[in-house]
Specification:
The complex is a heterotetramer, with two copies of chain A (330 residues) and two copies of chain B (286 residues).
Chain A: E1 4-8, E2 14-18, E3 24-26, E4 29-31, E5 35-37, E6 60-61, E7 78-81, E8 84-87, H1 96-110, E9 114-118, H2 123-133, E10 139-145, E11 149-150, E12 156-157, H3 162-174, E13 182-185, H4 193-202, E14 207-210, E15 214-216, E16 219-220, E17 225-226, E18 233-236, H5 241-254, E19 260-263, H6 269-278, E20 282-285, H7 288-291, H8 295-309, H9 315-318
Parallel strand pairs in A: 5-20, 6-9, 9-10, 10-13, 13-14, 14-19, 19-20
Antiparallel strand pairs in A: 1-2, 3-4, 7-8, 8-18, 11-12, 15-18, 16-17
Chain B: E1 4-16, E2 19-25, E3 38-41, E4 54-57, E5 60-62, E6 70-76, H1 80-86, E7 93-100, E8 112-118, H2 125-134, E9 138-145, H3 154-159, E10 163-168, E11 175-176, H4 179-190, E12 194-198, H5 201-213, E13 217-221, E14 237-241, E15 247-251, E16 258-260
Parallel strand pairs in B: 8-9, 8-12, 9-10, 10-11, 12-13
Antiparallel strand pairs in B: 1-2, 1-7, 2-6, 3-4, 3-7, 5-6, 13-16, 14-15
Helix pairs in contact in B: 4-5
Bound molecules: flavin-adenine dinucleotide (2 copies), flavin mononucleotide (FMN) (2 copies) and FE2/S2 (inorganic) cluster (2 copies).
One FE2/S2 (inorganic) cluster binds next to loops of chain B.
C-alpha cells in the first residue's frame, strides 16, 4: 500500500490516510475533495463548521434559495421512516438578497467553496436567481434544484418533464458566469431519468446532481391522517440508496462524459465508493448529517482509506470503474 | 458555547418512577451545559434503521474528575428510539451531541420565581432552581403529570424550594387536575416575577397565558420534533414574534428550546400564520 | 372496546382479538381477511403452511407464473440494503402447466384462496395465461404483474407505459372468467402512477395492486462491480413503504371507487393500517416474510387489534379514512 | 421434520479461536436437528435495518431437561449481521427458525468416511462423525483454514476419529497449504467410501473433484446467500443435475444445503448454464 498521512478526525481521534489524490474535476472546476454536503441538510454551513472544518470539504452545497423570503410549510415537517426520513420543509429561507449579503458572504470569508442551490416556481425566477449570482466571486458552481412545482403549469414538477427541465437549465446556463458550472439536480420520480438527463445536458447543463428525494407519504396511525403538514414529503436516507446508485449507473452509462454528483443515503465511505464506482465524480452527504454532524468529513476519510486499500492512486481512476468490461480485472 | 460530538460511556441507567435516568460520561459537553440546554443522542446503533437523534433536556451534570464530566438525562419510553435507549447498559457507548439550544435566561436581580414542570419536563428545572437560589431568588415548584409514576423529582423539588404543589390528572398524588389549576393562586400568593416552564406544548401555552395575565415574565422550553437538533434541517420551527414585531418560523433547536412565553404564537403552532415573514407558501418543493 | 376473542398465534402464544369484521370486498369477491402474501415472497404457499395455517389468510398470492418453465437469473440474486433488499430472481418458475397441475392443485386441496399472479413477455403471453386459468375453480382473482419487459418493444416495461399496460390488462380481462377479478399490479418507477392506474382501469382492470419493487443497483465494494448477477434489481422492504403509501394515497384520491391492494414494506399491523387508511382494501406482506415467516398472520392480528383499539367495527370503515375532510374527527 | 420459529433465550456466548459459539434454548428446533441441518437467525432487532435472516449450520444440540433443547452454532464475525449477533448477551432473546434444509445422508453400511471442514465449516461434522461412529464407520478428519485461529474443533476431531490432518494456508498449524493437498493421500490410504465436506464453495468444488477421481461418494454442504432460508424466495439457487440428467436451478435451502458432490455443477455456480431447464433467460422482470 501507499504512504500514509496521519490526520485528526473531527472526533479527535488520529487516523492514517493513504496517499490518494482525492481531487476531482467537475466540468472545469477542480475540488480538492469529492465529498460535499447535500442541499437542505447543512443550512449555509455555519452550524456544521462547529463540528469540523467546512473548508476541508469539496464544497458546501447550500439550502436551495429562492428569490423571495419563504416561511415554508406547516409542521410537522418530518417523519422518521425505516432507514430514512420524510421531509416537507417547503424551502424555508431568507430569499436571495439576504442569502447573498449574509450567508454567502460568511461562507466566502470563511474560505469555503460554495455550490449554490437555486429553486424557483417559474423558469423566469431561476433566471433572475442566476443573474443575481452572476457577479459573485463566492460561487464555485450552481446546482439547479428543478424538483420544484412549476406554478405556471398546474404545479407540475419541472424535473418530471424534459421540456420544462431544459427551459430552466438553459435559462440558468445563459445567465450564469461562464466559468461557473451549472449542475441540474434530477428527481428519481420519473419513468426515464436518462431522458431528463439528456434534455438537461442538451440545454447546457455542465453536469448532473442526483438524486433528489422520492415522493412519499406517511400516515399517522393515531391521528389517522397524513403525518406531514404538507401531506406528501421527500424520502431520503440510506433507504433510497439503491435507487440513487441505479440513477447514477444509468446516466453514467448513457452519458459517460458528463460529470455527475451522486447522493442519496450516503452514510459511510463505502456508500460513497458505490456512487463513485457507478460513475459519480463527487458525492453529497445529506440526511446522514442529522445522524452524525461530522459525517461529511468521516465519509471523506473512509473513502480515502478504501481507495488506498484498493490501490487507487487517485479518486479519478475509480470514477465509473464498475462499468469496465467483464474481462477487465480489478 | 460550542456543541461537541462525543462517544460517551454509559456510567449507569436506572428506573425512576416510570422514567429512566441515564448517566453518560460526556467530557466537553458536561462542562458547557447551562440549565435548559439539551443533548441529542443517536439511537439504534451505527447501522440501525433510526437515523434521527433524539433530544433530551439535561437533568444535571457532574464533574467526576478522572472520568470527565457526566450528563444525566431522564426519559420516558415512548417509541422505538427511547425503547432502544432504555436497553443500553453500563459501559455501552452512546453518541451524544451537545450542549444544544438556548438555555433559560437568568434574572440579574433576586426575584421570585415559579418553576412549572410537566412530567419529565421538570428535569431541567432543578439545576435552574439551584442557580436561582444562589442568586437569592425565591423558588416555588408546581409539578404535574397524568399520574403519580409520571411525576419526576418531587422530593428533590422539596429540598430546594419554598413550596411544591403537585397535580395529577387522576389524583393519584397531590391535587387532582392540571398545573394551571393551581398556578394562578400560587403566582398571586408569591407575587412571582418569572415563571419557568417545561413540559408538553399544551401545558406551556396555558402557563404562558396564566403568567401573562398575572403580569409575570415566562420562559418556556418547548418540545418540537427535531431531525438534526443543530440548526441545519428546518424541521423544528414554530411561529415566534421577534423584537421587531414580525412573526417568523423560528428553529426551536437553535433559537429555543427556551422562548419567552409571550413571544410564541401558541395557538398557531402547527400552522404558518398568514402574517408570517415569507408566508403564504405557494405550493413548493421540499 | 368491543368483545374479545382469544386466539393462538403461530408462535403458540395466546392473544386477545377484538371483535372487528375483518372481511373485505375486492371487486365482487369477499375475502375473510385483508392480509395476503405478496407475489414472489411466499412461493406457492406450501412452505409457509408449515409456520401458520395459510387458509386463514385473505389469499395466497402466488409467485408470478409464465407460460414456459424459466430458470431465472444467475446468482447473486439478492443484496441486503438498509431496511430492505434488492432482488433479481428473473421469474424462475415451472411454467403454467406444471403450476396448474401441481401447485394450484395443492392450494385448492389445501383449501386456500388463491390469487394467481401472471407475467409475460408479450401481450399475447398474458392472454394465453389467462385462457389457461379461465376454467380453474381454484382461482379467486388474477394479479397481472405488468412490471415485465415487453420483448416486442425494446424491452420496455409494460407498467411504464399506459398504452402497453392497457393492452395487457384488456387482453387478460377479456379472457378471464367473468366472476374472477383482475388486478393490475403497478410499478412505482413512473412519473405519473395515476395515469397508469387510470389506463388500467379503463382497460377493464377490476382493481389495482401496488406497488411492485423500485429499480435499484448495489455495487459490491470488493469486486467493484454490480452485486447482482442481473446488474439491476428490485428494491423492496420497509425502506420503500413511504413511496408505496404515497402511491396508494394518490390513486385512491383519483379513483376512490377502485379497490386497491396495498403493499411495500409492511412489517407490522401498524404498517398495514397505514395502507388501509390511505385507501387500500387489502394488503400483501412480502419481504417481511423472509424476516419472519409467520408475519402475514401476525400482521393480520396486529391490524385487528389496532382497528379494535380505534373503535372500528369493520375493516371496511377504515379504508381510505385518512382522506376524510379536515373538519371530520376520528 | 417441520421447521419451527422460536424466540430462544441465549444461554451462553463465548469466543472460540476467532469464532463465537452461541448456545440458544430452542425447544422444538433442537429435538429435530440432524447433522447438516441449519438454522436461520434474525439479526438487528425487531425494528432494525437488517431484514434477512442469517443461516448457520447447527454445531450441536443438547437436551437440557427443564430448559428445553439447546442449539449451538459457531460463527465468524463477517458483516453487520454477525457483528450484531456477536453482541448478544446471556438472557437476550434471539429469533430462530429451524431446523432447515436437507441433512447429510448417512450410509446404511459401516463404511469408511472422511470429513473435510474448511474454517467454521467443520461445525456440523462432529455430530455427523459421532453418528457415523455409532454405525461402525471409520472416520478421519481433514480440517483446513487460512490460519490457526480460523480452525475449529481440532481437539474435538481428535477425540472422535481415526486421524486428523490439519492444513493452514499460512502454515501456522499443521501442513502449509489446503485440504485438497492432503486429501488425495488420505483417501487412498484409508480407501474412503464417502467424503463429507462443508466449507467455502471453492473448497467444496475441489473436494468433490478429488472424491470423484478417487471413486468416493461425496456429500457437500454448500453456502449460498439466502434471503429466506425456507424455500420461498428463490435467491439461493445453484445448477444441480437431477436424477433425470437435467440441470435445474435448485434451491440450496430446501434441496440442500447438502448435495451429492457429483451433482453440483461447481464450475457453473453463479451462472445459468445454457442447458438448464427453463434457460436461456430472455431478459425478464424480477
Ligand atoms: C428540546 C427537547 C427536549 C426533550 N427532552 C426530553 C426529556 O428530557 N425526556 C424525554 O423523555 N423526552 C424529551 N424530549 C422528547 C424526546 O425527544 C422524545 O420523546 C423522543 O424523541 C421520542 O423518541 P422515540 O424514538 O421514543 O419515539 P418515536 O415515535 O419513534 O420518534 C419518531 C420521531 O419523532 C420524534 N418525536 C417523537 N416524539 C417526540 C416528542 N415528544 N418531542 C420531540 N420529538 C418527538 C423523534 O425524535 C423521532 O424523530 C425532548 C424533546 C425536545 C425537542
Ligand atoms: C447453509 C448455510 C450455513 C452457514 N453456516 C455458517 C456457520 O456455521 N458459521 C458461520 O459463521 N457462517 C455460516 N454461514 C454463513 C453465514 O450465513 C454468513 O456468514 C452470514 O450470513 C454473514 O452475515 P453478515 O451479516 O455478517 O454479513 P453481511 O455481509 O452483512 O451479509 C449481507 C447478506 O449477505 C449474506 N451473506 C454474506 N456472506 C455470506 C456467506 N458467506 N454465506 C451466505 N450468505 C452470506 C447474508 O446472509 C446477508 O443476507 C452459513 C451460510 C449458509 C447459507
Ligand atoms: C430536510 C431536507 C431538506 C432538503 N432540502 C433540499 C433543498 O432545499 N434543495 C435540494 O435540492 N434538495 C434538498 N433536499 C434533498 C437532499 O439534498 C438530497 O438530494 C436527498 O436528501 C438525498 O440525499 P440523502 O439521502 O443523503 O439525504 C433535502 C433533504 C432533506 C432531508
Ligand atoms: C424476492 C422477491 C421476489 C418477487 N417476485 C415477484 C413476482 O414474481 N411477481 C410480482 O408481481 N412481484 C414480485 N415481487 C414484488 C413483491 O410482490 C412486492 O410487490 C414488493 O416486494 C413490495 O412489497 P414488500 O416490500 O412487502 O416486499 C418480489 C419481491 C421479492 C422481494
Ligand atoms: S432540528 Fe434541525 S433545524 Fe432544528
Ligand atoms: S433462501 Fe429463499 S428459497 Fe432458498
Amino acid at each position: 500500500m501507499t504512504r500514509l498521512t496521519r490526520v485528526i478526525t473531527p472526533e479527535s481521534s488520529e487516523i492514517a490516510l493513504p496517499d490518494v489524490d482525492m481531487s476531482t474535476r467537475l466540468a472545469g472546476v477542480t475540488l480538492p475533495n469529492p465529498v460535499m454536503t447535500a442541499s437542505g441538510c447543512a443550512g449555509y454551513g455555519r452550524e456544521l463548521d462547529q463540528f469540523f472544518d467546512i473548508t476541508a470539504l469539496g464544497a458546501v452545497v447550500t439550502k436551495s434559495i429562492m428569490l423571495q423570503p419563504r416561511s415554508g410549510r406547516p409542521t410537522p415537517r418530518m417523519a422518521e421512516t425505516p432507514s430514512g426520513m420524510l421531509n416537507s420543509i417547503g424551502l424555508q429561507g431568507p430569499g436571495i438578497e439576504e442569502f447573498v449579503s449574509r450567508d454567502l458572504r460568511w461562507l466566502e470569508e470563511r474560505g469555503a467553496r460554495v455550490i449554490v442551490s437555486i429553486a424557483g416556481g417559474s423558469a423566469d425566477e431561476y433566471v433572475r436567481l442566476a443573474q443575481r449570482l452572476r457577479h459573485s466571486s463566492a460561487v464555485t458552481a450552481i446546482e439547479v434544484n428543478i424538483s420544484c412545482p412549476n406554478v405556471e403549469d398546474r404545479g407540475l414538477v419541472f424535473a418530471c418533464d424534459p421540456v420544462a427541465s431544459s427551459t430552466v437549465v438553459e435559462g440558468v446556463r445563459r445567465n450564469s458566469a461562464p466559468g461557473v458550472p451549472v449542475f441540474a439536480k434530477l428527481s428519481p420520480d420519473v419513468t426515464d431519468i436518462v431522458a431528463i438527463a439528456k434534455a438537461c445536458v442538451d440545454a447546457g447543463a455542465d453536469g448532473l446532481s442526483m438524486i433528489n428525494t422520492l415522493l412519499g407519504v406517511v400516515i399517522d396511525s393515531d391521528t389517522m391522517r397524513p403525518h406531514l403538514g404538507g401531506v406528501t414529503g421527500g424520502l431520503s436516507g440510506p433507504a433510497i440508496r439503491p435507487v440513487a446508485v441505479r440513477a447514477v449507473w444509468q446516466v453514467h452509462q448513457a452519458l459517460p462524459d458528463v460529470p455527475v454528483i451522486g447522493m442519496g443515503g450516503i452514510r459511510t465511505g463505502a456508500d460513497a465508493f458505490e456512487f463513485i464506482l457507478a460513475g459519480a465524480s463527487a458525492v453529497e452527504v445529506g440526511t446522514t448529517v442529522f445522524n452524525d454532524p461530522s459525517a461529511p468529513m468521516r465519509v471523506s476519510y473512509e473513502l480515502q482509506q478504501l481507495l488506498g486499500a484498493r490501490d487507487f492512486a487517485s479518486l479519478g481512476d475509480a470514477v465509473g470503474f464498475a462499468h469496465r468490461p467483464d474481462d477487465e480485472p480489478a | 458555547m460550542t456543541p461537541v460530538q462525543v462517544r460517551g460511556e454509559v456510567l449507569s441507567i436506572r428506573r425512576v418512577g416510570q422514567y429512566h435516568q441515564l448517566t453518560i460520561v460526556a467530557p466537553g459537553v458536561a462542562e458547557q451545559v447551562r440549565p435548559g440546554h439539551f443533548v441529542a443522542i443517536a439511537v439504534g446503533g451505527e447501522t440501525g434503521a433510526q437515523l434521527l437523534r433524539r433530544a433530551f433536556s439535561v437533568y444535571r451534570t457532574q464533574d467526576r474528575g478522572v472520568y470527565g464530566g457526566t450528563v444525566d438525562i431522564v426519559f420516558a419510553e415512548h417509541g422505538a428510539g427511547t425503547r432502544w435507549l432504555s436497553h443500553v447498559r453500563q459501559h455501552d457507548t452512546v453518541d451524544v451531541v451537545g450542549p444544544l439550544g438556548k438555555p433559560f435566561a437568568l434574572p440579574k436581580e433576586p426575584v421570585t420565581c415559579t418553576m412549572v414542570g410537566g412530567g419529565y419536563g421538570s428535569a431541567p428545572l432543578f439545576t435552574l432552581a439551584e442557580q436561582l437560589r444562589e442568586r437569592g431568588c425565591r423558588v416555588d415548584f408546581v409539578l404535574g403529570a397524568a399520574t403519580e409514576g409520571r411525576l419526576f423529582g418531587v422530593l428533590e423539588a422539596k429540598r430546594m424550594s419554598q413550596s411544591v404543589a403537585v397535580t395529577t390528572e387522576d389524583g393519584s398524588l397531590g391535587d387532582k387536575g392540571r398545573v394551571t389549576d393551581v398556578l394562578p393562586g400560587l403566582l398571586e400568593r408569591t407575587g412571582a416575577d418569572v415563571v419557568y416552564a417545561c413540559g408538553p406544548m399544551g401545558m406551556l401555552a396555558a402557563v404562558a397565558d396564566v403568567a401573562a395575565r398575572l403580569g409575570a415574565h415566562s420562559q418556556c422550553a418547548v418540545e418540537e420534533a427535531m431531525a438534526c437538533g443543530i440548526g441545519v434541517c428546518m424541521t423544528c420551527v414554530l411561529p415566534v414574534v421577534g423584537d421587531d414585531g414580525v412573526t417568523r418560523m423560528v428553529r426551536s433547536c437553535i433559537d429555543g428550546p427556551v422562548f419567552r412565553g409571550d413571544r410564541v404564537r401558541w395557538n398557531d403552532v402547527g400552522t404558518v400564520p398568514a402574517d408570517t415573514w415569507g408566508a403564504p407558501v405557494s405550493e413548493g418543493g421540499h
